[in-house]
């Protein structure tokens, strides 16, 4: 068994030209298989069928391997057994029918309403770039925009009278998002009191500008969010998408319809939006446990 694993790794290195890191990853998976096989009475590769390989993956899972790592291990097995069939060591590929384990869906992180207030209230609009940064942060939270949508927002897409912003999201789909009162106020003060000073000869119609007059990059906006959170004394890891998650979660907590949230976020499928119902259910369980006499 071990000699054929060595032959396979040599094949990956010489014929496939794969990196040493990938080879090491494959070896870490395959080196666990012979000891497990022999312990369970399977002395040769032909003794292993689909059920046995499934049992091996189950063994890895019980040993503490997470679903994402199991998926990688499965790929290693599939490639290896395909190699054994090609080299005529096996007639049938036992790994071919194996299905990848489902990865557990991670609930999105959110920021509590009080923490959002603390973050937004900490930005002094009278200080340099304060109006710009406050407008960015308010718009993230008020409208649930993606990072790219903030960076690409243009003057001609903003309707201050009707309180709407037209954004183009994933799949080049355009939607109208409402701009809340505080965000609208912050935007108006930035557009009249700070943006004109940032304009240069090469300035485009992007709403949010850098100190050089160009559009803000996604990297710079991420930095702004982190810098403002740090200045506010918030220890939690704050990033733009966290504000989008918080926008959706707080709407749901306050009774908004899931279909409305889907439209506001620009999700093509309602199943993507449904992740927020799990966040709300988790919150309800926590509240019940903490406050019910028999929780």
What's this, in brief?
The protein is mostly helical and 295 residues long.
Element layout with pairings:
Blueprint: H1 2-14, H2 20-30, H3 33-39, H4 50-62, H5 67-86, H6 113-121, H7 130-143, H8 147-152, E1 158-159, E2 164-168, E3 174-178, H9 181-193, H10 195-198, H11 218-231, H12 240-253, H13 258-265, H14 270-273, H15 275-291
Antiparallel strand pairs: 1-2, 2-3
Helix pairs in contact: 1-2, 4-5, 7-9, 7-12, 12-15
Separate helix tally? 15
Q: Roughly how many Å apart are the termini?
A: 55 Å
Number of domains: 2
Please tell me what the overall shape is.
elongated
Determine the CATH topology of the largest domain.
Answer: hpI Integrase, Chain A
What strand line-up does the widest sheet have?
1-2-3
Radius of gyration: 27 Å
What structural category characterises the helix and strand content?
mainly alpha
CATH architecture field of the largest domain: Orthogonal Bundle
Broad CATH class of the largest domain: Mainly Alpha
Beta-strand share of residues:
under 5%
Determine the CATH superfamily of the largest domain. Answer: Intergrase catalytic core
The largest β sheet comes out as: 3 strands, antiparallel
Number of strands: 3
* Mean pLDDT over the residues: 89
